[in-house]
Each structure stands twice: as structure tokens, then as C-alpha cells.
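Page header: ASSEMBLY MODEL / two components / 510 residues total.
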Amino acid sequence: MIRIEHLSKGFGSLEVLNDISFEVRDGETLAIIGRSGSGKSVLMKHMVGLLKPDAGHVHVDGRDLCCAEYGELRELRKRFGVLFQGGALFDSMDTFDNIAFPLEYFSDLTSSEVEARVEECLSLVNLEGVGAKKPSELSGGMRKRVALARAIALEPQYILYDEPTSGLDPETSNTIDQLISHLSDELNVTSVVVTHDMHSVLTSADRVAFLHDTNLHWIGPVDALHDRPDPVLDAFVRASEYHLGDPSASVPLTQDS
Amino acid sequence: MSSLLEFLFSPLRALGRYSILMARAAASLDEIRTYWSNLFDQMVRIGIDSIPIVSLAGAFSGAVLTVQTSYQLESPFIPRSIIGSIVVPSMMLELSVVVMGFILAGRVGARIAAELGTMRVSEQIDALEVMGLNSVGFLVLPRVLAGVLMFPVLYVASCAIGIGGGVAVGHFGGFITAGEFMDGARQFFKPFDPFFGLIKAVTFGFIVTSIACYKGYYTTSGAEGVGDSTTEAAVLSCVFILVADLILAVTLL
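Prediction written out in full:
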């Protein structure tokens, strides 16, 4: 379980997060939504200790990341897979080596087992046969899927997704959403999805946390969105719906409007 | 007032961050076995791949120094062998290693800063960290070690080829025969000279690679930041090579 307690963070005079507290329960998928610049990615980076809070604590399985020694932090990080917004693939390696990289450093698999696992991960994201290509030879969507394949290669306990479907075509977005649901339902992976994509939220999330004006404005089960629990959240959700350009695609949200 | 203080303290803050990065790299030494392949890869990139340009610069430096020394000492009262006595120590003590340092500040330093800077702004360094790898041990330590190990090798190559260039130009240009050149070189040879050059090469290797790693590792602000880091790495390396050159000369000679 990941528990955030009274977390605050700023950069210089800019306050980004103020007194945020919530927890991510084991096996659930929590979507963090909010406007651009609302601190979603900053919050996510605190969960793996890439950023230190100005105040507050982040606990992972009961260990406080803020007080952990670097060695302990590295051990805790091995429980995580992270899909970065731009993929963060290693330019100098081809696709196969990118996915094999964590396996070679942190598993006892033989080279043939590594090869099989890489192929398995690539097939999970519908990307067979691109192992020899360099990241620069892949499209943005393909890079993101390769990054996802790398994030799941070590079968982590937690997966953090930073905008997993941004820049992807609808079909690939659906594939990613289904994969997030599959990992959560079948393998009991705990997931945190930072996204603007309400379709993705409705498809894959169990709960939603809404950041607004540096605060955690609302958190609750995804089904509660139908009841319009908060006017600011409602405005954000409906703006997203309008942005999708196809209100019929979000029938559950519009059925009572 | 606060911006003035910021301006005054920024070099101290930079020095502090640089020292912390180098301390983290030193603390990662016990993990170097994990990163062997990275170290060998960097030794090839920094060392072997730089041999052609360093050799070229060394050859021309030695040749030009021979011609100019010959021109300055053109007198019936000065033996020609004195040209070798001047060119060889000059190459060993100063010219080959400083010219090499400047060239590698551009070739090696700029490349390292650009590479790490791009990795920083594209979150590749964060990706290494969240996998549980020590990014300083994986990226910084092999580059700095490779610089410290390979700059002396390049110095030997640069010096040998530079002296060879001097002999060749002196002989075929009709300034001094190869025999006279080598006689002069032997006459005033001090065993400390090449040793001093090696000390300089190790020092310059550390300066170029560590500054480049520091600038690259802490890059911010996207493509513009990568450009700034690359430029600053090359310029700062050249400045600190000159400073270190003077300090070593004053303290060791």
C-alpha cells in the first residue's frame, strides 16, 4: 500500500501541492486527474522517491521514502514499474535491449528466458517484431508501448502510469486501458494512473483522485462520478467529455443530464 | 538584494553540488563490477576513438614547434641539437598534454554533457533510478574512471607522435638531422618530465569528464538546457585545465 500523508511541495515561490493525504490500496487502480500543471506528475514522482516533499511523508508498504537511506530506497523502487510520459526509453539501445535491461540487472533469468520474457511483454502491448528497432525508429505511440513493456517486464507490485494514453490513437488507447485493467484484475498489480483521459479513467480505474488548486479536491470511487459529487470536478469531467467530441461515448456520465 | 546574494553564492552552490556528485560517484566504486561493460564501453569511446584527432594534433604541434625553434635559434654559435633539447621537453611537459586537453574538452566533454543532458531531460535518468539502479554509479563513475585511465594513454600517443612529427619535419625540412635531434633530446632528458606529463593527463582527464558529467547530470530546461550544458562543459573544462596546469607547474616543477 502507498500512503501519502500531508504532502506539500513547491518549486521556488511556486506552490504545487499543499497538504495532500490519501492512500493507494493494494490491488486497486487509482486515477489521478486534474488540469495541466496541477501537480499530478509531481505527486507521482514522490511515490517512487524521485522528488522529496517539502513537508509530509510517503509510505510504501509501511516504509517512509522520505527517511529511507539511498540503498533502501533503491530496494523499494524495485517493487515499481513506471511508465513515463515520454517513454524514457534508452536511445542507445534497441527495443529488445530496452525491455531486457531491467531483467538483465535484476533477475536470475538465463538469456533464453530473458528473450522469451521480452517477446511476451511485447506481445502484451501488441508490438511483436520490433525488437531490433531503435527508439528513434518508432512512432510516439509505439515508444510508449515499448516503455510499458519495459515497466511490466519484472512483474512489479506497483505500476505508475504518467499519461499512458496521451498521443495514442483510440484503438491503441483501448489496448493500454485493457492492459491496465488486466494487470490489476489478473495479477493484482496496484496501479496509479496520471491522466486527462476520462475514457481511460472510466475504463480502468477503481477510484479517482482529483487535484485542483494545489489541493486534493476530491477522491472517491469512479462510479461516484455519475452522481456529480462536486461542481468543480463535474466541470472538469464534462469539459473532458466535450473534448472527446463524442458525448455518446460517455453514456454513463450523461445518462441523467 | 536577494538576486545579488543568489549571484554571489551560485558558484559556491555549484561547487557543493559538484562535490556531492563526485562523492556519490566515489561511493559507487564498490558497485563498479556491476558496470564493467559500461566502463569498457566508455574507455573505447573516450580513449580509442580519440586517438586519431589527438595524434593529428600532436604531430602538427611537434612539427610546428621544431620549425619555430629552429627559426629562433638560427645562429652559427648554437649547436643544432639544442632544437631537440627544447622540443622534446616542451612536448612532454606542456604542449602535447594541454593541446590534447583542449581538444578532448570539446570532443569528449561536450559529448558526455550532451548525452547525459539529453538523458536527464527525456527522463532516462529517472527511469534508471526507478528501476533501482544507481544512476551516478551507472553513468558518472564509468565516464570519470575512463577519462582518468585513458587520458594518460592518449598523452603517450600524442607525445610520441608529436616528437616523431618534430623529427620528421626537422629531418626532411633540412633544419636538423634525426640524429642531432635525438642527441639533443637525450642530453637534457629528465625522467620526471614524462611522469609530470602523465600527472597532468590524469588531472585533465578528471577535470574534463567530471565537469561534463556534472553539467549533463544536472541539466534542466529541455533542448536549450542541453545546449547550455554542452557549451558550459567545454568552456569550463578549458578554464580549469589552464588553472590546473599552472597549479601543477608551480607545485611540482
